[in-house]
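re: ur msg from earlier - yeah i can do the guanosine-5'-monophosphate complex, just paste it... oh wait u already did. ok heres what im feeding in:
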Amino acid sequence: MSTRELIFDGKEKKIYSTENPDIVLIHYNDVTTAYGGIKRAVIKDKGICNNHISALAFQVLAKEGVENHFISLENDREQLCRRIEIIPLQVVVRNRLAGSTARLLGVANGTVIPNTVFELRYNNDRLRDPMINDTHVLALGIVSEEELKRIYSLTAHANEVLKEFFHKAGMELIDIKLECGRTSDGKIILSDEISPDNCRIWDEKTGEVLDKDRFRHDLSDVTVSYQKVMERLEKAYEV
Ligand code: 5GP
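and the outut:
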């Protein structure tokens, strides 16, 4: 499908319109940022890994009944997705306490918990994506009460499917930042991406960190880790 105009120029992805107004082409590049864009680098072939990992995850999610924007993998760096209206909300789902929440609550990174934690963030660069609660979401009119319920059930279901998705390849999903969007017919579906850029993924046996924390904390072999995640998943799913 031939591309037309650039409709979104993000740090790590570019989105192009296509001949079909309901379909976009998402291009994954190798730029990596952290801490709200303060830390930035080019990590060779990261975009290829994230495009393939995301495509596979979205296909497995769809098979398990989690409606999402993915349509097809076009090439190493691009995928076709349903065009959605962006909802400025991030849902961070945590299976262990790590990162910002471990710091916030004063517990060890990776603390095991008896339940799943859901955090909402207002997706707003100027305000640095502040943590908000359900009543803020309704006060700001980001979504309706019914839509918020749908977002919780969709992201909870996605988390359960993705825990198993990574487990099948010997990895543990520690946490993940998910985003949803609204289709032209008003339905809320899962969007954005599923990759080591927006998940914490640890090796189940060794505890080795296989995600963007390697870049955040200046650990070595970021590309190797992303490739490892892709190869393990592709092997587990016989891609
Ligand atoms: P934390 O709040 O602990 O820093 O992040 C929780 C999870 O959400 C991690 O897996 C992290 O990678 C992801 N995450 C948090 N904020 C962002 C963001 O702005 N962009 C992306 N891609 N992922 C994020």
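cool cool. The CA atoms of residues 7 and 16 lie 5 Å apart. ping me if u need the other ligands too
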